[in-house]
Amino acid sequence: MTNFDDLVKLLDEIEIEDMRQRNEGEEKEIRWRIISRDAAEFLSILARSVGAKQIVEIGTSVGYSTIWLAMVVRTFGGKVTSFEIDPKKIKLAQSHIDRAGLGKFVEIKLMDPIENQDQIPENIDLVLLDAEKSDYVAHFNSVYPKLRDGGVVIADNLVSHFDELKSYVELVRNHENCSSAMLSSIGKGLELTYKCLPKESEINPWNEIIR
Questions:
Q1: Is residue 182 assigned to a domain?
Q2: Across residues 66-74, what is the average pLDDT?
Q3: Which of 3, 30, 119, 156 has the greatest number of C-beta atoms within 10 Å?
């Protein structure tokens, strides 16, 4: 197991390289494009608060957010299933995850979950959605049937790419069995969507207010 100081050093290295790529204007197709530190910290706290054992990540990139999620499932005895379509990023991600000593808690799948829904695990506690913005709606529809009642979906970039994600916001805000709200001050904006427990909206009027 990697010690705490080494883990912090690894996360710092990834953040510094990501910032360098952004500052030098590298093309987005080859940039690492990781989530922000405050978003990662929030994600970790949220995953711990729901006791997440089954986590799905859509968009591994180079494994930064995967490491944060894997630290949670290590505690609860679970697994992160992460989907990525870029083999070069998967290679980097696996290297980072192995350096963190978290390899046995992560399975990275080189595939698009929209086209391979049978590869999405059942009874998901938490989903991180951080892929191409035009695919958010399709990704949500793919994971929703496998999200447990009381599970949550976190979608990144809701402020930075709001115009591109209007259809996603409309979907989750008007979903008959979800409550959803934007956390605009965290990272580049997160949309937190909660899958209601059976009949919850009937017994909890607050659910209708926040929807």
A1: yes
A2: 98
A3: 156
- Label residue 154 exposed, middle or buried (CB < 10 Å: 0-12, 13-18, 19+): buried
Q: In 3D, which of 46, 201, 200 has the Cα closest to residue 126?
A: 46
Is position 18 within any domain? no
Q: Are strands 54-58 and 124-129 parallel, antiparallel or unpaired?
A: parallel
Cα gap 135→5, rounded to integer Å: 37
Give me the number of domains the chain comprises. Answer: 1
Rounded Cα gap, residues 148 and 196, in angstroms: 9
The amino acid occupying position 188 is K
Which residues does 110 contact at the CB level (< 8 Å), separation at least 6? 84, 85, 87, 90
CATH number of 139's domain:
3.40.50.150
Please choose, from the candidates 183, 172, 167, 177, the residue with its C-alpha nearest in 3D space to the C-alpha of residue 207: 177
- The string over 185-203, giving b where at least 16 C-beta atoms fall within 10 Å of a residue's C-beta and e elsewhere, is ebbbbbbbbbbbeeeebee
- CB-based contacts of 78, cutoff 8 Å, min separation 6: 52, 53, 54, 55, 72, 105, 125
Question: CA-CA distance, 62 to 98, in Å (whole number)?
Answer: 12
Domain ranges, residue 136: 35-210
Note whether residue 100 is domain-resident.
yes
Is 9 a domain residue? no
User: What is the per-residue pLDDT across 82-137, written as a single tens digit (0 to 9) for each?
Assistant: 999 999 999 999 999 999 999 999 999 999 999 999 999 999 999 999 999 999 99
